[in-house]
Amino acid sequence: MADVSSPRRRGRENVDADPDEDRAQIILITGLTLAVLFVAVVLLLNTVIYTENLATRGADAGGAEAIEFRDDTVDDLAGILHREHRNRSSDDVLNDFDESVKTYSHTVAGLRARDGVIANVSVNRSTVERGYFVAQNETESGFRNMTAPDGTTANWTVVSGVGRTRNYRLTVNSASVSDGEDGAFAVVADGAGENWSVTLSNDSADAIDVRVRNATVNTTRTFSHEGDGNVTIDLTAGTVGGQHFPELVWAGGVQNGSDPSDTYDIRHENGGNATGTYSFVVDERAGTSPLDASSRPYVTDAVYGVDVELTHRTPELTYSDVVRLAPGERDA
């Protein structure tokens, strides 16, 4: 009988056991490798998510607040500048505006400090662009017609030698304008060989017809309205009663760009066929005018544009900007 414990027998048993041990080791190593890979992937994903959240939080919590501060400030200062032009407290509107901005900045700084924000607003006086404010207010008896200061001249030049015009707002009573375009009141911008006009008429109740004409545009649109019949037409913003009118582009073809080399005149035609108020700011004008704030209409010195410096500082972000303030420019 063969000896089961012989060396040959034991060798064969050892050979038969080796494959099982190898497979177990391979499985173990594979499992460890997969575990390491999974951990690495999880760590990588967590890093990406953290980075994205951090970047998003930085933009929203810091940058968005600063941008909102800038936009709100620009809107507020535009209103202050318009108020200073209308309600002059001295002979220098820039000084009046500067003092109002200082008061505004002090007030805003106090309010923002409650939220841990350091805010400041200031006027860079060295950047001021002087201009002229032209306006017609209401009389004691109500709206005045659109004639010259003498009250009778219907076709007349309001201001001449203009390079740029901003914030041109015209309010008319639609019941006072002509029924048709023949003889209707018109605002005209006359340049070197170019002409632009907007004509106001009314052939229906509770509405006003607005016609825009220049070398390439000739279109009329009817705008309905409610209330007392007063309609505000923003000639530089291109709106009628708050409704956008795409073809109403101020002095299109006459005022070219924000710094044109050619000047133009602003005229009223058939001024006796409309009553209302208006105001606008121009950068230049030819000659001198005897009109003052006691006249209707009148012309006074103005600020056409000026740079305003803004600072908004939090523990996370310091934001500074310089904004040119010229509210109501055609291409603003």
How much beta, percentage-wise? 25-35%
Q: What would you call the structural class?
A: alpha+beta
What's the average pLDDT?
A: 85
Radius of gyration, CA atoms, in whole angstroms: 36 Å
Helix segment tally: 2
Unreliably modeled segments: 8-13
According to CATH, what is the class of one domain? Mainly Beta
Gross CATH architecture of one domain: Sandwich
CATH fold label of one domain: Jelly Rolls
Number of E-type strands:
15
Tell the overall outline. elongated
Q: List the secondary-structure elements in sequence, H or E.
A: HHEEEEEEEEEEEEEEE
Distance between the first and last residues' Cα: 112 Å
Q: Which percent bin holds the helix content? A: 25-40%
Largest sheet: 9 strands, antiparallel
Please describe the structure with a list of short key phrases separated by commas or semicolons.
Jelly Rolls; 6-stranded antiparallel beta sheet; 332 residues; alpha+beta; 15 strands; 2 helices
Tell me what you see in this structure.
- With 332 residues, the protein is of the alpha+beta class.
- It has a domain at 138-295: Jelly Rolls, CATH 2.60.120.
- It has two helices and 15 strands.
- The chain has helices at 7-86, 93-113, and strands spanning 118-136, 144-145, 156-162, 165-173, 185-190, 195-201, 207-213, 218-224, 230-234, 239-240, 243-244, 264-269, 275-282, 298-313, 318-325.
- Strands 1, 2, 4, 9, 10, 11, 13, 14 and 15 form a nine-stranded antiparallel β-sheet that branches. Strands 3-12-5-6-7-8 form a six-stranded antiparallel β-sheet, with no helix packed on it.
- α1 packs antiparallel against α2.
- The longest helix is centred in the N-terminal third of the chain and has 80 residues, at 7-86.
